[in-house]
Amino acid sequence: MGIQTHSHSLRRKLLPYALYALLLIAICRLYFFPALTSLPSTTTTTAASTAGAGAAVDRRLTPKSPSPPPPSPSKGVVEEESGTNGCDYTNGKWVHDKMGPLYNSTSCGTIKDGQNCESHGRPDMGYLNWRWKPNKCHLPRFDPNTFLQLTKNRHVAFVGDSIARNQLESLLCLLATVSVPNLIYTNGEDNKFRKWHFASHNVSVSVYWSPFLVKGVEKSEETPYNRLYFDSVNDVWAKDLDEIDMVVLSIGHWYLHPAVFYYGDSVIGCHACNNKNHTEVGFYDVYGMAFNTTLKVLVNRGIDAIVTTFSPAHFEGDWDSLDACSKTQPFEENEKSLEGMDYEMRKQEVEQVISAKKSGEKSKRFRLEALDVTKLALMRPDGHPGPYMYPFPFANGKREKVPNDCVHWCLPGPIDTWNEIMLDIMKRWNL
């Protein structure tokens, strides 16, 4: 019993010394061998650091693997063009803005009837009080005097479909707050070709209906599909290029319609061409071809250009349902991902802009930029006319079905932001 007690007492006395010894060994190990405490790095070594014989041996011994696939559109990843005038307008969020727009439904006389949502009785006005805030830079409010000064003695032409016209009419309303636009030319069904003049700065602004950019024959009752020719641009606007200083290109939704595609006299495929002896090729690649053909012409002519990227629609269910686009607030930041057709259309446009900029980088006369609005437009399901494309659709009570416009944008509304970004791009051009 006494021996056991003595042994136990001795262990208690020696235990602290043993702990001190272990602690001393650990400190020495940390001091003299720090690398042993780190896990192996999983970071890929840069090309510069692996150059030399060792890297060459590794390449010979390692089987060549296929290139990794691009990021999945469902992740909402957006490819960025490096050095886009020092500001990435693509990524950001819509923030509440008490100031509201520069104009209203009564102060601007050039709003197309179908986009004048307030005068058509839309009851909620919250869609007017949001501003786009890029993550890494400041987007100034639109200054009409600055735009007119930058375009003094110049002609700015909007070329494309009804979204191009929508953006043009937004610009007219913004500019009309300081200078009166005088309509000096109009032609075509639904005023598809128009031109205004701002005498204060000798600025001309026009719109050309050209929903494919390239030559095309629109569908009809006799021919229920479009015919598009990708070897040349549409002459309805190209014939006036000697008088145009800057072109704003905006198309997209007409490429969803059935069509047969040509290059010269040869058929290269079709989209939704049932019962025809042509290969179904979809429309993404030919959509890129349209921009390739168009931008080559503008590069060669040295005409400044801005490509407004694809503007998503927000139909939910049937086009004539009461809830087709009934939201009254923007989507939250992670509530909606850029994917599917919206992603692919925007991708084709941005890639063609990057390619054209590289081919024209030696020209001091030519400036080009993508007005990248696809993602920020996707976040605004509340900005469309919806049933208020027609005046007071519920004046006689609630209806089971009602026509909706979930493609175009109310004026004033989110599309005013397109012109804020465009002006900021133009200011950076002139720094």
From TrEMBL:
Keywords: Membrane, Signal-anchor, Transmembrane, Transmembrane helix. Signal peptide: none annotated. Residues 44-56 have a biased composition (Low complexity). Residues 86-138 form the Trichome birefringence-like N-terminal domain. Residues 139-424 form the Trichome birefringence-like C-terminal domain. It comes from the Eukaryota. It is a single-pass membrane protein. GO terms for cellular component: Golgi apparatus; membrane. One of its GO terms (molecular function) is O-acetyltransferase activity. Belongs to the PC-esterase family. TBL subfamily. This is Trichome birefringence-like N-terminal domain-containing protein. It comes from Deinandra increscens subsp. villosa. The lineage of its organism: Eukaryota, Viridiplantae, Streptophyta, Embryophyta, Tracheophyta.
